[in-house]
Amino acid sequence: MPICRRSSASFRSSLRLQKKTVERQRELLAINGISQQDFDLSSLNVDNLKADIQSTRIAISKTEIRAPYEGQIGLKSVSLGAYLSPADVITSLREVNRLKLEFSVPEKYARNIAKGYVITFRVDNGEKDHKAEVMATEGNVDLNTRTLKIRAIVVEKHPELVPGVFAKVNLQLGQDTKAMMIPTQSVIPQARNKQVVVLRRDSAQFVVVETGIRDSAFIQITKGLKAGDTVITTGLMAIRPNAKLKLTGVKRLQ
Q1: Which domains does the chain have, with CATH numbers?
Q2: Which residue in 127, 133, 149, 252 could disulfide with 138, CB within 3.0 to 4.6 Å?
Q3: Which residues 6+ apart lie within 8 Å of 219 measured at CB?
Q4: Spatial distance between the Cα atoms of 193 and 190, rounded to a whole number of angstroms
Q5: Cα–Cα distance measured from residue 6 to residue 15, given in angstroms and rounded to the nearest whole number
Q6: pTM of the full predicted structure?
């Protein structure tokens, strides 16, 4: 870069001198003091110097790196004075004002997520919830995981929102004030269905159920139970159909 800048300064100095020469020769040409050919050669030298200056400016501009967006620069990967090639990585630039959040949802919830949908999330060890707006969804469900990939734009800036961190996404896919929820450990998975043990009078009855959404502690029952049923939550492995049961404790779920 210093060589290019010195060359550019030398060209500019030569250009100023050559322009003065052309002005003097123009006066001499008016009184036939020089030939037209000599004047044309001097004018040509001026044009050549302008072209050299422009070429040098282009060469200097190629030594400057301009990012297409504002962001935060990371640690540098090269040392001062090192020779670089186009494939060398100098540093990283993160667009911290427009972070993207990627997550996946089960295929049965895919139809509930569309562009513009607002979600809340919290990063690992985070202190508050943040919001993001869905910008696009994958065109198909993944054949292996049966999930749909979602990409959202984070619409706020916070010190704990660091690129690359993991986040827990909270999706509200509707609201049902009459949903029937039971403890997750109450559901017994079978090869073809799911069952729960219900107390009918004083005997155990195995009832096939259909489930909906779930969280870390409870699961929704969409079919198979009715309000007021007593569901057994412990000792399930030792219970057989129609076995007589004696309850040691009953808890009503709100």
Answers
A1: 2-61 (1.10.287), 100-170 (2.40.30.170), 180-238 (2.40.420.20)
A2: 149
A3: 181, 182, 183, 184, 187, 211, 212, 213
A4: 5
A5: 14
A6: 0.50
